[in-house]
Write the structure tokens for this entry.
Amino acid sequence: MDMILDILTIPLVQAVIKILVFVLGFVMAVGTVLTLMERKWMSAVQDRIGPNRANIGKFTGHGALHIAADGVKSLLKEDTVPAGADRFLYLIAPLFSYFPAILVWAVIPFAGPIGSVTFQITDINTGLVFIFAVTSLGVYGAVLGGYASNNKYALLGAIRTSSQMLSYEVFLGLSLIGIFMVYGTVQVSKIVELQNTYWFDGLIPKWGIFTQPLAFFLFFTGMLAEAKRQPFDQPEGESEIIAGYYLEYSGARFSAYMLAEYVSIVAVSAITVTLFFGGYQIPWLFPDGFHLLGYSLALPPVVVALLQAGSFITKTLIFCWLIIIIRWTLPRFRFDQTMDLGWKKMLPLSMANLVVTALVLLLTA
Amino acid sequence: MTAPAETPPITARVEEKFPGAVTASHQQFGDETITVAKDQYLAVMTLLRNDPTLKFNLMVDLSAVDFLGQSPRFQVVVHLKSLSLGHRLRVKVGVGEDGPEACTLPTISKLWVAADWYERECFDMYGIRFQGHPNLKRLLLYESFVGHPLRKDYDIHLQQPRVELRPVRERYDYQNRNLTDPSETERRPL
Amino acid sequence: MQTAKKPSVKTVQRQGGFLIDLYLPAIIGGLRITLRHFFRNVITQSDVVTISYPEQKRRISPRWRGRHRLTVREDGFIKCVACYMCETVCPAKCIHIEAGEMPDKSVEKYPVVFDIDELRCVFCGLCVEACPKDAIRMDTGIYSMASTERVTFDYTRNMLMDAHAKTDKTKFPSTPLPLTQEEALPQSTAKLAG
Amino acid sequence: MKRSNLPLEFGAEPMDIEIGPSHPAMHGITRLSTRLDGEVVTAVEVEIGYLHRGFEKECENSTYVQVIPYTDRLNYVSPILNNIGYSLAVEKLFGLDVPKRAQYARVILGELSRISDHLTCNGAMGMEVGAMTVFLWYVKAREYLWELTEEVTGARLTHNWTRFGGNANDLPDTFFDMLEERLKKVEAVLEEGVKMLFKNKIFLDRVKDVGVLSRERAIEYGFTGPMLRATGEPYDLRRAEPYLVYNELDFEIPVGTVGDSYDRFLVRHEEMLQSISIIRQAVAKIPKGGHYQHDRRAWLPDKTEVYGSIEGLIDHFKVIMEGSTPPKGEVYQAIEGGNGELGFYLVSDGTGKPYKCRVRPPCFNFVSALPEMLIGHYVGDIVPIYGSINMIGGELER
């Protein structure tokens, strides 16, 4: 027993366990389920029933078996390589779009620490910068896939992806500088902790959405573009360039791209929640229990951690849902309009936000 | 098909400008129709388009009818409409298949852009060549199609030979293509 | 030709302006509608218009032109007199009839062969209109005849008669009322399966 | 927004790209060979004919009534309008009078068809720019209307409903019972479409000022219907050359001002609302009476006559064996189809088969003008513009 506890205190072992639990147990699971839920939710929006045919005998689980059916089907399909493709790049490209979406989770805290145990895979002190570095890597998957496919549509998709992601990163970063300034740190766990401080004598939490409302809209828009979701999905706009950069892929590699898209939705939601919606924080819940207007309710640390994890997961799922509903509500921009929006509207706005934030901080300091 | 007692205004106007160009006319079912001589066809059409009392600015339809066994064999039928004046006219012109000018007719695509595709379709279906047409090639059928299917002597059950499979260049080496070789860089004219 | 009436023209209004340039009002307005549909359909399914097809079937019109059937007389003999009207009028040329006589001369003329190739049929209903004897009808309400073999679509005379023939032949008087869809459907699908 | 005749940027090679024939967003199967400079289209060549079925040849070898099922398959989103146009042409050839009730019935079903055509087109325009949801709602609304026509004709799409001298059958009572409820539902769906798209800047940006064709060029290209009206020319055959009972009904002709995709969208939308109002008026005005006036040359007598009298039976046999035999002559009859002037040019030689049966397809002109509309626009605009012209393969290529 002691030996097991000893082993558990080794940081590497802890990290491996966290990776298994967080990434495999949460991110991958949610990403996979989202592939089905997107279809179910969109059919609800569109007055349809949605997929419900995959079955084992009489059991369909209202379509739940489609996840298994899709997985099995994509694994069993032939993995084609088009003629004239750059074979090596073609085969590894899906991984490039897959890993960045997963790597982000290294710095996302799921719950507040209990003693020395943190619910975060690693708490590097440049967490936000790390998130940026990693999400911008996502462009490689698309560009390499599109370039290596030897297909003009795929190439167009790849070019669109690269320019879109590079452009939107600019104001994405700028919009977050406000957050750095308000909380005075780039360490993700600190930012989340600081979002549990309050205005007006413990009444309104200092969540990012309240301290930086404009930055939230800018950031969320930019993140939609980074995840290549509608209204910014020209890289794969099916009515123009069919499926864009992953047009030629089939079988398991195709589903890797698809899964990467959904995992990046989860990642986008998690980052948004972490930075703007208090991360795992529940308003007025402190490590020792609830405190509001003089009333208080003491809770054991394990319960607090569980509540916090639950809150983080719920918020993330709500954002995943919102992103999917937005997709089925809005048309998509044309490519030049995306660029216009990014450079001519979002960038000045984020700069203005920066200036205003700086002024407010200067005056209130 | 009795000739009307009174010549309708459009026909009268055309006859006034080009005496002898209108070889026949009728007003069956209220559709005013003139048949014009082939050599005057383009001139009459230009008049119909530009004359201030006619102003046929909308070319509605161009087609042909194959009267197999009669001479001239084909009749190209053009339907015109004037949006400002509201009248319609059907212009017919006979196209024979004998002589040096067999199955040819001057194009009217210079007058109405719309005629471009209609003439291509007419060429496709009847084999009537429109002289001066900018891009007279088959429209609905494929290039290797033999014959013109709407001619009356084209049997409805006739089967065309299958288009031969064209070889696909396997594994074209894009990395090592020779850009000085014209066949590699040449582009199909659009 | 009727005289032309003066048209009243209405110029359509193009939208634009500052509020629209903001993006957000329209996005929120759009989300309101999609969310209304979403919650209604998730909670009560009240807006869902699709059906789970093979299990549920939609109501079809009593005039629905489904698979053909050949009607029979009161004594159970086929009504068709092999006059070739339907074969002549069929635009798809999918009916094939060969006429014959009963040896005992009890029936002057009847179809020895009456085949319909349902794969060629365009379900236009002209055969029904052209029949002077009310011998062919398309009121079976069968719209799905899916099969994996071509040959199953060649419906012969007996199959076309059986499709509606119930055990009690008196249910079909000389001018039979159209079968309701509910009556026609289960029986004919059973026949197809069997 | 149009960038034409610009020099290639940075001396880059132009890229030739084939859009279609099999492209997920192609409405029919049409091939657009385009040349791109970056994302800008510099040259387009349109190739059609993938859906050519030899309609005219087929007609020349069929009797007059056998052509009616073929016309169902011309513009397959508004088949009844084709039925009506063809029947009117043949009736003009015969000199037949159609009973008033049948004319009203044709107007009602024709307008339902027009709504379903415009619903498809506008929905598809939404889908082209990514608003899939609106498309599916519009298709849902179209389904309501198809169920109505099914109630009358017995088929959802391949109606084969009109005959020479009337209609195959009368409007049943159940039709009138369902009609108002269905129209209300369609109006509700249209209202939702308005809320989703009409004020949405993303959508407006995609359709405004793209695919512009001026009024003069549009007339030059022979445009008719909503495409022409979007440029500002109020040419509507229902008013310009009235047929059926349109003179007894009030409606407005919507026209646009610029002639871009957006105007086409708005004109089609407004036309749907006008059609709904036409249907309401026609339902209020529809007289009692027969749905079919028999003429022994044209089509079958009533069934009671066939069963009851030898003359009726002889007429019946004769018209089927010989076909309908109109007098010799030629006739052109145009109606306002879903896309514009849908004309039928018939030449009769006095036999039971049309000597020539020509269809004047409205969207033929639109597709021929496609290069002019596309050049200078972005790749992303190709499909929305293509969607706005409402190309229907069956009608285009016959």
In short: The CA atoms of residues 181 and 187 of chain B lie 12 Å apart. Chain B touches chain A through six residues (CB under 8 Å).
